[in-house]
Amino acid sequence: MKKILTTLCAVAMLAGCTAGGSKKSSTNTSTKEETAATVMVGTGSVTNVSNKAKEGSDTAAQFDTTFASVVLEGNVIKYVYFDVAQDKVTYDATGHVTSDNTASTSKKALGDKYGMKDKSSIKKEWYEQVEALEKWAVGKTVEEVLNMPTTQKDEKHTVTADKDLMTGCTIGVTAFQQALEKAAKNAVEVKDVASVGSAILTQVSGKDASAEKSGEAKASSTYGVVALDKDGKVVFTQTDEAQNAVKFTTAGALDGEAAAVATKGEKKDEYGMKKVSSIGKEWFEQNQAYDEWTVGKTAKEIADMKVTTNEGGKTVTADKDLMTGCTMGVDSLQKVTATAIAAATKLN
User: Fold this and answer.
1) Distance CA 35, CA 194 (A)
2) Burial, 297: exposed, middle or buried (Cβ in 10 Å; 0-12, 13-18, 19+)?
């Protein structure tokens, strides 16, 4: 338990990434220049799942989860954040997992390590191109971003044809547009917003196939947006989890489809947690209880949540108020919330 809390506090203190203007800022110190606004805040994601086998190589199950967070004032974008969790699990012709799978790093967090700059026609790294897209989108309506002029670069990539944007962004834009559209639809009105932060964290796993059970490659991406007031206290949190899997046989063959499914939050009652829940609540209901519990708290208070380990080995809350509405694992939600708070930037 101490290790978890120490890690979360360290994340809250040290984590930081760029968003809608790309400048880091502290949310714990208010200034006279800070203002609070009533805005619409939301987040959403889309995932692409593929399973590719190359001659002489292991098969790769790949998961690309693109997520977006948006702040709207009226119908105008004041803040937008994009990132992609791109994860692979490889397995051989006997159904044995050959990759080392743990927590992954998003494309934006990889920074210069992603390695796009040398291959880019404009000599810009992936995170630089995404920041250019974010900067271009701020001040526009969601409809203007969704309806930007585009052209087909190749079979897989639709890129912008906007003359201003294409000088800084030549990567595919379709998934960003789709995620933004979802984020806008999920947006709700929030008062007293001074700064906003977003984050995505992923756990990747792989299980060997056996005669009794199919092998599995899985990626679980928890993401969210957090809005803070002038004092650095949470006024709104919206989180969700995109969990996708590919199954395979002992012959290294695909077992079923390699296709993305709805997020846990989007599944609502279809997720199926309610019937096994000790409090009779579905995943989206417990997730909402967690989001609401964070309101009014600081990053430290969220990181210092009392937790315990349940019989299944999951880290669950021991907070008396929260445990009445949420008994599922909360460690990934804690971490993504702390990371989002640490990365928060002031609204312009």
Assistant:
1) 6
2) middle
